[in-house]
Design goal:
The complex is a heterodimer of chains A (611) and B (349). Chain A has 611 residues and is α+β, with helices and mostly antiparallel strands. Chain A is 39% helix and 18% strand. In chain A, strand 17, helix 14 and strand 18 form a beta-alpha-beta unit. In chain A, helix 9 packs across helix 10 and helix 21 packs antiparallel against helix 22. In chain B, 79% of the residues lie in helices and 0% in strands. Chain B has 19 helices and no strands. In chain B, helix 8 packs antiparallel against helix 9. The relative contact order of chain B is 0.06. The mean pLDDT of chain B is 89. Classes of the chains: A alpha+beta (611), B mainly alpha (349). Chains A and B meet through helix 18 and helix 19 of A and helix 2, helix 3, helix 5, helix 6 and helix 7 of B.
Chain lengths: 611, 349
């Protein structure tokens, strides 16, 4: 082998490349029809711009069920023999893209509506058909009708045709798997999905009226009326709580500004459930052609309570036109949308706060869950989010009015006991239910902004809820209770109606389970040693699996029991009754076996008392 | 059975079950969403929701999976202490007979031992050795678990300077990796071996292993370690320009993860080996700050120890003494703070 370097051209294996492009570029075979309709649309646009002969553009789709043919016909500019060779039969050279580029300096507006750009779309005809015929007559003077025919391999036939009207007819011999397209209802559905907004009328079969609406509602003078009409065929956007039209938007880049062409609608659906199907998705059109209805990157991440129809010529479709490129332009469009949405929300808050409150109310969980990720948005929602509390729904402002002071009490699934809630209720302090994941980040963000707020998890504030009392008067009572529960103490707390609570330390369950597992040698070696040492550390620091029975010095019952204890008439059964009642209501450390034991002691005590 | 096999199996079971409820699907979908997400904090939200849903419908086996993954992701978010506590609780739960033989039972225990090594390799050494020995006796047919616990043991031995034992652990790691398909563990094993070779000063081997690991880069933090390892090797082998390029490349993976202890160690070592003590100090100060209140006890004490040494090397004895005091305070969280006290004494003399 020579040691000299050399350069060479890539070689192409045309049948393989054709197969890849025609069969694997698109994830959904139905887009083959969309590509053909887009070519027909561009052809009509070109004739309108270049021929200026006052023709009335029209695309017709029809079906020959007996022959198994699908026919797409347009009265656009048609193709000359040279154009067929240069564009139709040359992969990757898109005529419309070339036109758009050539006119960029001279007449960009006129050519902006052309959709095609990759020179690949026609290949998708072979997604649908095993054989394709193109009958065409160009609008250019002196053109002859031409017939192009191919079966999707590397060759095609080009011969004189017989078409006598300007335009193009494509006849597709449908593959067996695509014969569902020979049903007109399926065609209507597809056209309305992909081409509803295309400005050229599209007819299917013998229908006398075009089946596409040809106008985007957001481009109409009377937007509200057009939207009402639009949602009849797009029911998912019906019953919107609020909507606004997107406009071109100027973005400040620091050193410069840039105008982002933008149109469409952002709307708030009537209600949401927090799930994997959160909103925040957009239906995207590029030059009026539908691209996708499930883009989740264009709307800001915090805006899961809105949906949108978005159109911007700055967005670039992928080659299969089933999604959009996330390039620099995409980022600019996204920023323009975010700024515009924030601006509109701020305006709504100023001008129609009732509606905004309604939106927040209908989407509380979604909004709260994501609000902490955007400062500006958080400002708009911070004082209207309704939180679930032990005293009903209330905003943070209402909570603070009801519970003066710097503390906001909340409870998560990790809070060990229900009793803390009861004690707080005794002091008329509501507790916010923070079990839903969005609540705590929301409260933390609130506290971060307002330094006078202190968040307190209910079980971490027992010291301020219970106060020690002088024990002399209660000594006999406590001694009597220690006969049934060695860890008994007396304290002063609210509400008076509760005579006693059974409180456990934070890691009581872990200590109990670990001790059981260690005693029964159930843990993996290594892990057992580590857990044993952690349990030792916890118990050294005063934690225990045993609860503490705390008698309430404010309780009339406890006071009466204290008198009995001081007179020497207090019966053990009374102590057992109070102790077991407190245990049963503690909500912790109670498996089925312990519960039965507790009820047994409880019943025995009652029987003893009434005997 | 890997989590993916289980996942597939569970999906098929749900689809075939006409009585599957919305809650059944919800917890499953939440789990799916969690595995799809990239940000550890987002993953954690989904896993916790998924666990709550599992417990709400009494599916304890599913909840244990969630515990394992919550343990992994709290660690990815840099919260080693929380991760270890959660995994230990899960290990206590996993003792019940209903989990025997289930992959999540093994997984929880493997991860618990893994986390001990992260939190305090000196203090937990005995437990880790005993744990790995037991796991190896029951996981012969599960090379994936071996890839984790042998890697962990190799890391611990390397960290505490027991290089012979580390070499043995690395050999066992390689055997598991060779029996397991996929590049993830292979590339991580390359990283682990490169770290050991760097401790031994064998820079040709470090370069070779780093290059090999970088062919199919592992997760971001291990990826960054490989790039910085390559930079250190190139520096020692006399190519500072290529070294600087490789070091710069590490910024990319580092931007998408919580830096690990190894990332800090290698970055500080690279700076020091380049003669830039000032930058080495900056790296260690960042590490000391980042590890506050996250249960990364050993890492925090070590960064303090290194700062004491670096300032001493720089001739700033006052700063060195200040850091020695901070290091003593930080080491009080360790199970065996004597090692740190001895190392501080050594620096002083």
């Amino acid at each position: 082998m020579s040691s000299h370097s050399s350069s060479a051209k890539f070689d192409l294996h045309l049948p393989g490349l054709l197969k890849v492009l025609a069969e694997h570029l698109y994830s959904d075979r139905r887009v083959g029809l969309r590509e053909l309709l887009q070519n027909a649309h561009d052809s009509c646009s070109r004739r309108r711009i270049e021929a200026a002969d006052g023709f009335s553009a029209r695309i017709q789709i029809s079906v020959d069920r007996e022959a198994g043919d699908l026919i797409v016909e347009d009265n656009g500019c048609g193709l000359t023999g040279d154009e067929i060779v240069s564009y139709l039969a040359t992969i990757g050279r898109g005529y419309t893209r070339q036109l758009r580029e050539e006119s960029a300096l001279t007449d960009p507006e006129s050519y902006r509506e052309l959709i095609g750009q990759f020179g690949l779309g026609f290949l998708s005809a072979f997604l649908i058909a095993s054989e394709v015929e193109v009958h065409t007559l160009s609008f250019q003077r002196g053109s002859e009708p031409m017939l192009w025919r191919s079966t999707g391999d590397e060759t095609y036939e080009l011969s004189p045709g017989s078409r006598n009207k300007i335009g193009t007819t494509i006849r597709l011999k449908c593959k067996p798997s695509m014969r569902f397209l020979l049903c007109e209802d399926a065609l209507v559905d597809l056209v309305q999905m992909y081409c509803d907004l295309l400005p050229v009328p599209i007819y299917v079969g013998h229908r006398r009226y075009p089946i596409n609406r040809q106008h985007a509602p957001w481009d109409e003078d009377d937007f509200d009326l057009a939207w009402q009409d639009f949602v009849e065929s797009h029911p998912r956007s019906a019953d919107a709580l609020w909507k606004f039209q997107l406009d071109d938007w100027q973005i400040d880049l620091g050193h410069d500004t840039v105008q982002i062409p933008l149109s469409g609608v952002i709307y708030v659906p009537s209600r949401s459930t927090v799930s994997l199907n959160e909103f925040g998705d957009a239906t995207v059109f590029i030059r009026k052609m539908f691209i996708t209805d499930s883009n989740r990157s264009l709307l800001p991440s915090w805006a899961r309570f809105v949906r949108a129809y978005i159109e911007s010529p700055m967005l670039q479709p992928t080659a299969s036109r089933e999604d959009i490129h996330e390039d620099e332009n995409f980022e600019l469009v996204r920023e323009a949308i975010e700024q515009q949405l924030l601006h509109q929300i701020a305006t709504l808050c100023r001008e129609d706060i009732r509606r905004w409150n309604l939106i927040v109310d209908c989407h509380t969980d979604l909004i709260m869950g994501w609000a902490a990720t955007c400062d500006e948005f958080f400002d708009q929602i911070a004082d209207c989010i309704q939180l679930r509390t032990t005293r009903g729904m209330m905003t943070v402002g209402q909570y603070r009015a009801e519970c003066p002071g710097d503390k906001i009490y909340y409870e998560t699934t990790r809070s060990p006991s229900f009793f803390e809630q009861v004690l707080l209720e005794g002091q008329s302090k509501p507790v916010i239910d923070a079990t839903w994941f969005g609540v705590l980040p929301f409260l933390q963000e609130y506290a971060r902004r307002d330094r006078s707020v202190r968040l307190v998890r209910t079980d971490s504030d027992l010291q301020s809820l219970m106060h020690d009392v002088p024990t002399d008067y209660f000594d006999n009572l406590v001694d009597a209770f220690k006969q049934v529960c060695p860890r008994t103490k007396i304290a002063d707390f609210q509400p008076n109606a509760i005579p006693a609570v059974f409180l456990y330390s934070e890691h009581a369950e872990f200590i109990a389970e670990s001790e059981e597992a260690l005693a029964k040698d159930q843990l993996f070696p290594g892990i057992a040693d580590a857990i044993s040492s952690i349990v030792d550390d916890l118990t050294d620091s005063g934690e225990s699996s045993e609860g503490v029975l705390t008698l309430n010095a404010n309780s009339p019952l406890v006071n009466q029991l204290a008198i009995a204890a001081n007179e020497g008439t207090l019966e053990r059964a009374c102590c057992e009754l109070v102790c077991e009642m407190a245990k049963l209501f503690s909500g912790r450390m109670m498996d089925a076996r312990k519960m039965i034991q507790s009820f047994d002691v409880f019943s025995g005590a009652v029987m003893e008392i009434v005997k | 059975m890997s989590v993916w096999d289980w996942y597939q199996h569970h999906a098929e079971r749900l689809e075939a079950n006409p009585d599957a409820t919305a809650t059944d699907w919800m917890k499953f979908e939440l789990f799916a969403e969690a595995t799809e997400a990239e940000d550890p904090e987002v993953k954690l939200i989904y896993y916790r929701e998924s666990k709550d849903a599992a417990l709400a419908c009494g599916d304890k086996e599913f909840a244990l999976w969630c515990d394992a993954w919550i343990g992994m992701e709290t660690c990815s978010a840099g919260l080693y202490g929380e991760s270890l506590r959660g995994l230990m609780k899960a290990a206590v739960e996993a003792r019940h007979a209903r989990y025997n033989g289930l992959p999540q039972q093994i997984m929880v225990n493997v991860l618990t031992i893994d986390r001990m090594g992260d939190v305090d390799p000196h203090g937990y050494l005995d437990e880790i050795e005993k744990g790995v020995e037991y796991l190896d006796s029951i996981c012969q047919d599960e090379p994936e678990h071996g890839c984790v616990y042998w890697s962990n043991l190799a890391a611990v031995y390397t960290e505490v300077g027991m290089f012979e034992q580390a070499t043995f652990a690395v050999e066992r790691l390689l055997r598991c990796v060779q029996r397991h398909s996929g590049y993830e563990y292979y590339s991580s094993a390359c990283m682990r071996m490169a770290v050991l070779q760097a401790s031994l000063g064998k820079w040709h081997a470090v370069l070779e292993l780093a290059e090999e690991g970088l062919v199919n880069p592992p997760k971001p933090s291990a990826h960054a370690t490989l790039l910085i390892g390559r930079a250190r090797a190139l520096l020692h082998l006399g190519d500072p320009e290529a070294a600087a390029t490789s070091f710069r490349e590490s910024r990319n993976p580092l931007s998408s993860c919580e830096p690990s202890s190894l990332n800090y160690d290698f970055a500080a070592a690279y700076r020091e080996e380049s003669g830039d003590l000032h930058e080495a100090i900056r790296v260690r100060e960042n590490q000391f700050r980042d590890t506050e209140g996250k249960g990364r006890h050993w890492e925090r004490a070590k960064s303090g120890l290194e700062l004491t040494r670096l300032y001493s090397l720089q001739g700033n004895q006052q700063a060195s003494e200040r850091w020695a005091q901070k290091t003593r305070r930080a080491s009080s969280e360790l199970r065996e703070p004597e090692f740190v006290a001895a190392a501080l004494e050594k620096i002083r003399h």
